[in-house]
Amino acid sequence: MEKQYNHLQTEDRAGIMLMLSEGHGIRHIAHHLNRSPSSISREIRRHGVTRTDEAPLRYDASAAGRSAHARRLKPRRPRKLVLESE
After folding, report:
1. Is the pTM of this model over 0.85?
2. What is the per-residue pLDDT for 56?
3. 52 lies in a domain?
């Protein structure tokens, strides 16, 4: 059976935000959401966490969703061939 990959949904991001605010670790969050810890870590790193020496981890689920959507629309590399318009 092949693995099936899914993007994180709004509910997943809300769960990450809630559990981070409660002080749970990445492995606990991943286990609760039935995701890999690396997926949770990558999501936190890419989408909206700020950390300073004085402030705990912060994550905004709605901002993360907007950021992820924008990333999906942006092409990874430029095209090698460009179609000519007639």
Report:
1. no
2. 58
3. yes
- Say how many domains are in the chain: 1
Task: Say how far apart CA 17 and CA 6 lie, in whole Å.
Answer: 19
pLDDT tens-digit series, residues 53-75? 666 567 888 888 888 888 888 87
Return the CATH number at 31.
Answer: 1.10.10
- In this structure, is residue 79 part of a structural domain? no
Q: Position of tokens 């809630």?
A: 18
Nearest residue to 49 via CA among 62, 40, 39, 60: 60
SS3 50: strand
- Domain for residue 78, yes or no? no
